[in-house]
Design goal:
31% helix; Nucleotidyltransferase, domain 5; globular; 11 strands; 2 domains; 229 residues; five-stranded mixed β-sheet; alpha/beta; 28% strand
């Protein structure tokens, strides 16, 4: 069984987890703008709790976005630094997939939505596997909630702040919602569980090849756009 350290800082939540076989140690805190302060102490804390030395890690897993630009960059840079120092591979995991993995409700179709600000949401559709994990159904997108397009399914479980912020617009586009949690945020423990599958399949990368996924290049509205918003 693999020993994986996972880092997820793409949203308001700062989260670090250590997966050692079936055991998980995790630190998770909703702390906007404090990720840089918290993440490395969290790494030390989960390693100490699990009694695992850094050299015993098989890989570093990281939430590669989409999400807040600064948060995604922070997680990638820390994962790269640790991986280079320890000569370990990096496993890139979708932040939306991690959100979908922890979604609660009856049904196998899950829509993960993260508030992307500027009137938009990051969206990813997933299905549960026989092994209890999730796989994507189509590409991840960024768009207004009113323009969401998802595959045909009998019903959806919806999770994430994109739903919490734009519930009315989402329900107008997707009326067949069986369950929803608009406050859900991704956990590093979900990153670690998904990373274990990727690592076993040989889909880890060298630290130098770890790249974030933003889905869009623009980070803020212009003053004119803010006035119209």
């Amino acid at each position: 069984m693999s020993v994986i350290l996972a880092i997820e800082t793409a949203t308001e939540a700062c989260s670090v987890a250590l997966l050692d076989g079936a055991r998980v140690a995790e630190r998770h805190e909703i702390a906007p703008r404090r990720h840089a302060e918290l993440v490395l102490p969290m790494v030390d804390a989960v390693l100490a709790e699990a009694g695992v030395a850094k050299r015993a890690l098989d890989a570093i897993a990281v939430g590669r976005g989409p999400g807040a630009f600064t948060g995604v960059r922070l997680a990638i840079s820390i994962a790269q630094g640790l991986a280079l120092a320890l000569d370990k591979p990096v496993v890139m995991v979708s932040t939306l997939a991690a959100l979908a993995l922890d979604a609660q409700g009856d049904g196998d179709a899950i829509l993960a939505l993260i508030d992307a600000r500027m009137g938009e949401v990051y969206a990813g559709a997933f299905e549960r596997d026989d092994d209890g994990l999730v796989t994507p159904v189509g590409d991840e997108t960024v768009a207004t909630a009113a323009a969401l397009v998802v595959p045909e399914r009998a019903c959806w479980i919806v999770a994430g702040t994109g739903y919490g912020t734009y519930e009315k617009d989402v329900r107008a586009r997707i009326p067949n919602i069986a369950g929803a949690d608009g406050a859900a945020l991704p956990h590093a423990s979900a990153i670690a569980r998904l990373a274990a599958r990727e690592l076993a399949a040989g889909r880890a990368v060298d630290a130098s090849h770890a790249q974030p996924v933003y889905l869009r290049d623009k980070v803020a509205l212009t003053l004119a756009e803010q006035r119209k918003a």
